[in-house]
Amino acid sequence: MNTPIFEERTARLLQLLQAATEIDCDAAWIIKPANRRYLSGFTAEDTQLTESSGSLLISDENRWLVTDSRYTLTAENEAPSFSVYTVKKNFVEDIPEFTRHISFSRLGFEEDYLTWDLHQKTGEKLAELSPPITLTPLKGMVDHMREIKEDWEVMALEKSADMISKILDEVIGDLKPGVTEKEVAWRIECLARENGAEGLSFPSIVASGPNSALPHAVPSNRKIQHREPIILDVGVRLNGYCSDITRTVFLGEPDDTFKNIYRTVLHAQRSALGQISPSVQSTQVDAVARNIIADAGFGAYFGHGLGHGVGLATHEGPRLGPREGTLLQTGNVFTVEPGIYLPGKGGVRLEEMVVLETAGPRILTNNGHFYDF
Amino acid sequence: MNTPIFEERTARLLQLLQAATEIDCDAAWIIKPANRRYLSGFTAEDTQLTESSGSLLISDENRWLVTDSRYTLTAENEAPSFSVYTVKKNFVEDIPEFTRHISFSRLGFEEDYLTWDLHQKTGEKLAELSPPITLTPLKGMVDHMREIKEDWEVMALEKSADMISKILDEVIGDLKPGVTEKEVAWRIECLARENGAEGLSFPSIVASGPNSALPHAVPSNRKIQHREPIILDVGVRLNGYCSDITRTVFLGEPDDTFKNIYRTVLHAQRSALGQISPSVQSTQVDAVARNIIADAGFGAYFGHGLGHGVGLATHEGPRLGPREGTLLQTGNVFTVEPGIYLPGKGGVRLEEMVVLETAGPRILTNNGHFYDF
Fold it and tell me: How far apart are CA A139 and CA A149, in angstroms?
């Protein structure tokens, strides 16, 4: 990763800021870890959601990375295009100090990450300055930038998807009745690390039998059994980039109900994929899958959205759901993952990760484990 | 874990709400994962800060757990003392629907977790109700409850601390020049899982040589070497409860600088521990360690606080730092972890986790790896 990438992105953000008349600000305060990394190269995560490892202050004349002493050296190493300022007390208390070096008056903030409390405290301190600085919501400007992947980002995502696809191949090949969900999940994590991933992109879901009816099941000590659905929803993080794939597996032939459900989910997914092209509304793609599932009589059992963007975060834009549509664009990378979940019985989910190219979606996940029921 | 615990805690919260004249509200909206779990037993984490897995609404007459369809069954299984409401659209859009079943007018919210954006949207929707509901900051009320551990929580924390202490024993015993920081970190993670922990309580820090000067170093491919400091800062999560311990290790005798630093840090830590008793100010304990380090000439190289509470979260109250003191109380569980970090050279940190009892602090971590330089 080289510095010009971050300089280019930062310059692009400033152009967008200037052009966006509905967002009246002349600087951006970036606190989301993925956005911070995207613009500066600073890889630190927030150890807890309420504990920031730093933030960026970006204006025409300023490139500041404000952090605390735990991260000073890391920040200096990773983000050479930014000036690192180490707070003496904390971000809020240090505002009078570091704003001496800056020159803006209307600061955009990330309203879906900044807590109410920190907004209050920061806002008050900025208002006391002379001249005062005001806070304005950035309305997801950097998140939107991240939705269009650069070519090398697509390659990074493809590598990540490829790794998890192969791991899943190996794990599915070895599945046997009697092993527990936890054991399978742990195997996946070991393979991810042995293959050089930083780790998982999210805690693996390995859900068997009735547990597969829980879309966000946590792996348990339940032993997997013959003829029941086993959902594996997994991903790795490789060079910062996340992957996400789901397969539903049966050891031995399932009953007709699950064959029907499986067929329906697969049909819904393939049909939705067929509908995807640049400038299509995301709600329209979701509707294709949702209608097929509803027509098959399972409308009440598909409660989540059809998919989500994937990149430096496992869940990002664009969202594909029944509400709040967006026009899909070339360079978007997202999942397509319909599911049907019968409470107490079990469920089926199938998920691919695709990049949208001019010619249509190209599937990045690469695992052929499907049934032809 | 049985239901009466959650009923008792919820009742206690309501008593506190009623008694707290500075917090004018008759209900609490709980969104922090650890607080949610503490009051209800619902174990789900938030996959991202911006993606809630649910929240609690608690008033004299209501015990609601509002979640979405991904978590309905888990919530019903884990939180039987709450009524589970599954949103049809999302929390904000569903407010007119589920508030039909509730009976309060001033709702306390967690201002250090709720985002500015969600506060705006929720506040607007609640204001449209008739009669309207207003939002008021809860000022950390549930977090404060969690700072005083129940006896069985201390036992759970002791088990967690004991597991990581033993793992560290094994790992330190096997350390050899030539293994990488990443390999050591991965070994710790494997041992945690093999021993039955849910996982790590935070990403392990294994930082050798100059990397040990970074208080939050990420394990790298650097090979550990003779005579240099190796900081291992690690913890597991066992039955929900976190542990946290740090040792600094040398393979072969270090130079006089590091011997001096090690001696100073150990002396600072033991002196701070000697100062701890119920009703002592946390700032006073921090000052004991900080002054010893400053007197030894390293005042500029100890940039972080002395310690933090540990429980369902790795970092919680009480905080032990130079600012914003609090009176330490019986039942507090926290770390004592001074450090000295010389940029470019290396650092030393030593950390114990203690429970404060009437007679003084009892160390829960149980690893005797110290040097008598």
Answer: 19
Q: Which residue among B89, B118, B193 places its CB closest to the CB of A186?
A: B193
The domain boundary, picked from A145, A169, A198, lies at A145
Indicate the average pLDDT of chain A: 95
What integer is the mean pLDDT of B2-28?
Answer: 92
List beta partners, residue B66.
B55, B85
Q: A70-79, A125-134, A334-343 — which is least confidently predicted? A: A70-79
Same domain, A207 and A337: yes
Long-range interactions of B171-178: CB distance < 8 A, separation 24+: B171/B232, B172/B232, B172/B247, B172/B249, B172/B369, B175/B224, B175/B230, B175/B249, B175/B251, B176/B224, B176/B251, B177/B223, B177/B224, B177/B225, B177/B226, B177/B251, B178/B223, B178/B224
Q: Which of B44, B216, B313 sits opposite A71 (nearest CB)?
A: B216
Q: How many domains does chain A have?
A: 2
CA distance A161 to A150: 16
Q: Which of B68, B315, B341 sits opposite A51 (nearest CB)?
A: B315
- Report whether A53 contacts A71 (CB < 8 A): yes
Q: How many whole angstroms separate alpha carbon A62 and alpha carbon A30?
A: 13
The amino acid at A317: G
Contact A293, A269 (CB under 8 A): no
Backbone angles phi, psi at B327, to 5 degrees: -80, 125
d(CA B168, CA B170): 5
> For residue A229, what are the domain limits?
151-363
Cross-strand partners of A4: none
CA–CA separation, B304 vs B117, rounded Å?
31
Which of A165, A207, A200 is closest to A184 using CA atoms? Answer: A207
Q: For chain B, where are the alpha helices, taking DSSP H only?
A: 3-19, 33-40, 72-78, 95-98, 116-127, 141-147, 151-174, 181-194, 256-275, 282-295
Closest Cβ opposite residue B315 in set A48, A53, A202: A48
Strand order in the sheet with B241-242: B199-200, B236-238, B241-242
pLDDT tens per residue, range A279-312: 999 999 999 999 999 999 999 999 899 999 999 9
Helix (H) or strand (E) holding A233, with range, is strand A230-234
ipTM: 0.90
> Per-residue pLDDT for B89 more than 90?
no
Reported pTM = 0.91
Contact B137 A119 (CB under 8 A): no
Of A105, A121, A145, which closes a domain?
A145
Per-residue pLDDT band for A48 (boundaries 50, 70, 90) equals low
Cα–Cα distance between B278 and B327 in angstroms, integer?
A: 8
pLDDT digits (tens, 9 = 90+) for A227-247: 999 999 999 999 999 999 999
Q: Which of B46, B49, B337 to probe the A interface (max A CBs under 10 A)?
A: B49
Residues A265 and A129 in one domain: no
CB contact under 8 A, A115 and B118: no
> In this structure, what CATH number is given to the domain that contains residue A63?
3.40.350.10
Let me know if residue A370 belongs to a domain: no
pLDDT, averaged across chain B = 95
Task: Check CB contact under 8 Å for B50 and A112.
Answer: yes
Whether the CB-CB separation of A217 and B70 falls below 8 Å is answered with no
The reply to whether B105 and B157 lie within a common domain is: no
**Spatial contact of A137 and A23, defined as CB atoms under 8 Å apart:** yes
Q: What is the pLDDT of residue B54?
A: 94
Is the confidence at residue A1, as pLDDT, over 60?
no
Nearest in space to A217 (alpha carbons), one of B72, B205, B102: B72
CB contact under 8 A, B214 and A70: yes
Residue found under tokens 């794990």? A171
Sign of CA dihedral A271, A273, A277, A281: positive
Q: Which residue of chain B is at minimal alpha-carbon distance from A204?
A: B47
CB B333 within 8 A of CB B316: no
Give the pLDDT confidence of A93-106 residue by residue, as tens digits: 999 998 887 888 99
